[in-house]
Structures are given as C-alpha cells and as structure tokens.
Fold this sequence. Notes:
The protein has about 140 residues and is of the alpha+beta class.
Amino acid sequence: MAFGKIDCPSKEITVRVTNDGADSQGYSITRNGSVVLADRLGAAASRSSEIALAEDKNVIVRVTQDGETVKSRTYKLNCVKGGAAPASEKPERLPETGSGTGTLVARLATGAASIITGAIILWWGGLWPRRREGMFGSSDRG
Length: 142
C-alpha cells in the first residue's frame, strides 16, 4: 500500500492498495474516521483511489483491513498559500518605487513660483529706490 503525492489543483491524493496474498481480501479507506471506500481485492491485484482533501485542515487518511489499521497518514493541504499559481493567471505587478508624478508637478510649481517671485523682486527693485529729487542736487548747477 502506498500514498501518492498531493495534486494541488484538484486537492486530491492517490492511495494505491495492493494485495500480495493468494486470497482476496477486504479493505477500507477512511478520511477523518468516515469511510470513503470499502472494497475487496482479488489475489495479486491492486487498485488506485483518489481521495479529496480539505484546504488548511488536518485530514487523516487510513487504510484498514479487518478493522486493523494497515497504514495511516495525516495531511494538511496548503495549495492556495504554498502552491504555484496556475499558468493562466497573470503574475502580480511589482509595486512602484521612487518618485512619482506628484514629485514632477511639485518641482514645476516650485520653479514657476520662483520665476514669478524673481520678476516681482526685479520690478519692485526698479521702482523703490527712485526719488523725485536727485541725491546730489540738480544737474543744472554749474
């Protein structure tokens, strides 16, 4: 008897039961105590069965013969978190890093404000120190 690998997309496990004896024998497969399959195998025969598992829960799979456990195994399926994404899904986009468009707008606004401020200072500088009378008197003195 052998337990196979977990098939994540279908959330199933394959259980292969083999009868190496000369007579047919009865067996059963249980999942968490409830019977999934009860059958008889002929001499030197084998059978594979698919057992569905639940996501993120402990599932105990047992193979019994005549009420005695032949083999048992506990599974905790984690296909969503640990499994690979199906090929049909697009991969996630990486987060954007660095300066965005907001930084460019802020720099342009700062530059425009600097130009306007400079123009106001030049205009006011041309008006403010002027006086109506000359500092050294009129130029008509002679």
